[in-house]
Amino acid sequence: MPTVLVVDDSLVDRRLVGGILAHSGDLQVEFASDGEEALQRIAALAPHLVLTDLVMPGMTGLELVSEIRQRFANVPVILMTAKGSEDVALQALRAGAASYVPKSQISTLLRETVSTVLSAVMEKRGQQQLMSLIDQASVSFVLSNDAAMIPPFISYVQDLALQIGLCDSSDSLRVAIALEEALRNAMFHGNLEISSELREGDSAIYRDVLHSRLNSEPYCSRKLYVQVSVSREIGEFIIRDEGPGFDPSTLPDPTDPENIEKACGRGLLLMRTFMNRVDYNRTGNQVTLTKQASIVQA
Amino acid sequence: MSKNILIEEADAEGKTLIVSPLFTYRAFAEGDIAAEWAALEERLTLPHVDKVIIDLSALPFFGSTVLEWMVKIWKRVKDKPGQFALCNVSPVGMQILQAARLHTVWQLFPSRADAVTTLASQP
């Protein structure tokens, strides 16, 4: 049964709201009389939804919304607002509140609003629960040389790695950085054959060459072939481009003081920093990134 | 048009620029910041501008593209000669700087105020 936490300093209002919500018999209703108590109860109860008054002594409803967004990002908040506080309600929505209900219309709007928000919460929780049951996922992509596809691809892999439990949110950032470097290397240096020296030089010339390669053969027809395989224990990411390849051992060490001002080699360095293994094939047009689990399984 | 790079002056003489990258790591697409980069380059050519602070508070993580961008700014300032510093670097950002060994050549400060105060005391 979904749990709703009602936060209001007025006992009368808590009883009113609690009565409306409990009427249908399909909700467990809990109460807190101020923001501090609400945060403690959220930590203890993990409610599906928080319904809070806007004006309270101490922490205001707006401040409570911000705290909940930071500390319990998956718990939606609905605000109950008094007449004349529409501007503050708007601020709260911008701060991450899911919805608001004017106190004057609580008897007619509250149950419908709670029901709508709870439906979305339950669906999301169900999806998260299902994703956490994935044992292993493998998926292949064929990408063109469109840099705009890199962010959604990385976002997809980050979500997959998080949901399966390969890594925590902090480590998923490191996976994202390494993958971005690998994809950019394969796309720009591999398929489009754009050198680091060109990137380092005049920006206008670099953009002209990039534009030209994106629209001329053989560069524009080349694809990136990406295989992603993720389990709770290990993630393997294989990226192959259709360029001539390169010998990674010939790259200058970017940490050498002599090279520290040069653009060359930092992408590979970051891949090696954030992945457990980085292996190139003999041709140098395929890289395999391996990430061991950062979460110790129970 | 959304702003990708915020440029502020830290002192009345305009000697110290505070540059805040506002683009997200994910939105850092090729050419997207070209016009704003050109405007910053122009500011860096002004003879009285000899100190640059990059405020990374809005960019918790980044890759080699952003590193290259910062290296370009650093080289411009260093050649003047001038001072270059970073502030508000996140833990992941610090790990990236350490991997690239750039933490050995760049001044790093926990806050913008610390960076401004320290650079103001340097010739």
Task: Outline the structure in words.
The complex is a heterodimer of chains A (298) and B (123). In chain A, 45% of the residues lie in helices and 19% in strands. Chain A is of the alpha/beta class and 298 residues long. In chain A, helix 2 (35-45) runs parallel beside helix 3 (61-71), helix 3 (61-71) runs parallel beside helix 4 (86-94) and helix 7 packs antiparallel against helix 10 (266-274). Chain A is elongated and about 75 Å long. The two termini of chain A are 27 Å apart. Chain B is an alpha/beta fold. Chain B is 37% helix and 20% strand. Chain B has a 5-stranded mixed β-sheet, with helices on both faces. In chain B, strand 3 (51-55), helix 2 and strand 4 form a beta-alpha-beta unit. The mean pLDDT of chain B is 84.
Shape of chain B: globular
What oligomeric assembly is this protein in? Answer: heterodimer
How many strands in all of chain B? 5
Unreliable stretches of chain A (pLDDT < 50, length at least 5) are: none
For the record, give the distance between the C-alpha atoms at the N and C termini of chain A, rounded to a whole number. Answer: 27 Å
Shape of chain A: elongated
> How would you write the strand order of the largest sheet of chain B?
1-2-3-4-5
Provide a count of the helices of chain B. 4
Radius of gyration of chain A: 26 Å
Give the H and E element order of chain A: EHEHEHEHEHEHHHHEEHEE
Structural class of chain B: alpha/beta
Largest sheet of chain B: 5 strands, mixed
As a whole number of angstroms, the C-alpha radius of gyration of chain B is 14 Å
The largest interface is: A-B, 29 and 28 residues
Q: Residue-averaged pLDDT of chain A, rounded?
A: 89
Q: What percentage of amino acids of chain A are in beta strands?
A: 15-25%
Q: Got a strand count of chain A? A: 10
Helix content of chain A: 40-55%
Roughly how many Å apart are the termini of chain B?
37 Å
